[in-house]
Amino acid sequence: MTILIEQPEFVGSQVDQDQNVQEQSNELVLDGGFAVPKTLQTDGFVAPEINSFGHSFRDYDAESERQKSVEEFYRLQHINQTYDFVKGMREEYAKLDKAEMSIWECCELLNEVVDESDPDLDEPQIQHLLQSAEAIRKDYPDEDWLQLTALIHDLGKVLTLPQFGELPQWAVVGDTFPLGCAFDKSNVHHKYFKENPDYNNPAYNTKNGVYSEGCGLDNVVISWGHDDYMYLVAKENGTTLPSAGLFIVRYHSFYPLHKEGAYTHLMNEEDKENLKWLHVFNKYDLYSKSKVLVDVEKVKPYYLSLIEKYFPAKLRW
Ligand SMILES: O[C@H]1[C@H](O)[C@@H](O)[C@H](O)[C@@H](O)[C@H]1O
Ligand SMILES: [Fe+2]
Ligand SMILES: [Fe+2]
To answer: Which parts of the chain fold into alpha helices (H)?
Structure first.
């Protein structure tokens, strides 16, 4: 997939956090049948067709050693993430009593983390953060909030480190999905949900389950991991990022929704607006993964200035 896009008119509102993307016309259809407004499209970034392992991106069936370990990851994730598990995790991590540190200190901690669920990248996560942020910076030089959103979107992966509870990978990474309603077929390796205790629970296995149509994603219990954790950290520490930035952090792994169009009946109007920016972001999150590494020390001063603009010096984690 190669998409050429032009500069957006919308300037990320660092001033007004609640400003949303305006109604747009001239829509272009992308993956999953979603439409992305022309004004949210940029020039420049050309999505490569193959990843560093020589496969298409997000190919969960390509024959390889990595494919086997990724599939095993999803088996464990689909069996162990339950409605009750997520509720318990949200409560535990809402305490924010694990650490006190800056955003950049957290970026450096990610030097230690490699994501076992990712078929496209086996570099330390700090490289992925900078690769995606730098790719956005090139195409969206004026949207500093979107660049910073890229820098922080995967910081929640510190949950795998001892100080943060050393959670198993299945409780931290991988695509996310709602609990409390039926598992949609578009989830990768869907078959492993059959062994999830919620699978046969009649309260949880209908289309709406415990939810009602249009209830809004904020009211939906989504599998626990780095997305929801980092959203919580950013919000509770009073970030001034716009709501589209927080939405991206919180739902960027929700591929069944943003790529496949599943679970859309749970969204409200605000979710639908924010989803447009998530589609823009996703291209850079996915296709910037590369073996060409960013010089961390060189770009550090620029990102420190963005962090200072949108976050307090120290955050509770
Ligand atoms: O393997 C990847 C990785 O864990 C990403 O950080 C996450 O956002 C994706 O959804 C997932 O597929
Ligand atoms: Fe992620
Ligand atoms: Fe990512």
So the answer is: 65-80, 83-93, 103-109, 125-139, 144-152, 226-236, 243-251, 255-258, 269-287, 296-310
The dihedral sign for the CA sequence 145, 165, 70, 255: negative
Q: Ligand 1: which of 55, 73, 117 to mutate, judged by most atoms within 8 Å of the beta carbon?
A: 117
Give the strand pairing for 315-316 and 35-37: unpaired
Q: What is the DSSP letter of 78?
A: H
- Beta-sheet pairing, 35-37 with 27-29: antiparallel
Burial 12-48 (b: 16+ CB within 10 A, else e): bbbeeeeebbeebeeeeebebebebbebbbbeebeee
Distances in whole angstroms, Cα of residue 137 to Cα of each of 248, 281, 310: 16, 11, 16
109 phi and psi, to 5 degrees?
-60, -30
pTM: 0.86
pLDDT one-digit tens code per residue, 176-229:
999 999 999 999 999 999 999 999 999 999 999 999 999 999 999 999 999 999
Residues with CB under 6 A from ligand 1: 115, 117-118, 154, 173-175, 252-253, 255
The environment of the single-atom ion ligand 3, i.e. residues with CB closer than 5 A, is 154, 285
At how many degrees (to 10) do helices 296-310 and 125-139 cross? 70
Give per-residue pLDDT as tens, 218-272: 999 999 999 999 999 999 999 999 999 999 999 999 999 999 999 999 999 999 9
Pair 172, 85: CB distance under 8 Å: no
The amino acid occupying position 173 is V
The two tokens of residue 10 are: 């919308």
